[in-house]
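Database export, one record per block. Field names are fixed; values are copied verbatim from the stored entry.
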Amino acid sequence: MKIKEIQEFSEIRPKARAYFCFLMERNIPSGVPGITIDDLVTGMKKLSNEIKKLDAIYVLDPSGRQVTNTVSIDPRYARKGAGENRSNRAYYYRVIKERRCVLTDPYPSLGGNNLVVTSAYPVFDEKGNLIYIVCFDMTLDNVLEILHPSSIDSFSGKISKIVYAAFSMALFLVAMLLFIKGMDSFIRNGMNFEEISIKNTFESTILLTLSLAIFDLVKAIFEEEVLGAHHKHAADDIHKTMVRFLGSIIIALSIEALMLVFKFAIIDPDKLLYAVALMMGITCLMIGLSIYLKAVDKSRR
């Protein structure tokens, strides 16, 4: 999912810029007299050895015109591009304006459907005059693979995706099993109004409530971790799912406690303390949920 990749990139962008700019500063000479294109080409080779997945690397002059052929593993761009005008590119404008190493936002590559980012490094002479700009392009996938190994499109991310999908399916089957069992219990024991059993009705309600709670949890896990869907208010959706899940558990436990009160009051009053203990536990859950809701509301302000 490109949306998830872009969001992941926005999280690691400061680290990515610091890392790429550090490598360029270490390998590309700047601020010293007598810098030549050959010096830059030597530095570019060192840089490509350190960053194995560079898509392209090239040099611009101060006017934005490419002065070297592109070094690329893609034959469509390799040994081409000298003389091309790149003065209309965002990275050129930013380098001219900021006079420092920059990293662009992801943008569609001209030759394919991939998203790429460009890092541009200004080269100055000993007097501080801009003489060259060294640039390299890298696909967003490769940037995330290098700097964000848990990315959804990296190897570990794909493994996590498969694991989450398996757990989602297992939990979905559990939810359906509870739903079927609850409906079966309700139909068999709840449709006869003359001989209705409060105990069986409560049990059916508990099963259906738990089924709904697990289904909500499965929906949230599958959308976020498997499909990689990130909505505008994704954090709010997660909070709502958490509240619904805990609320369903609290309702199910409350019904169970109420059923135990009726049961022990009739057959064994000495065991009412167990029902009271369960109610105290439910109260603690409600207090914890209230604190959680208050903390979430405070964080939004």
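Remark 1: Confidence is low (pLDDT under 50) at residues 230-234.
Remark 2: The chain has eight helices and six strands.
End of record.
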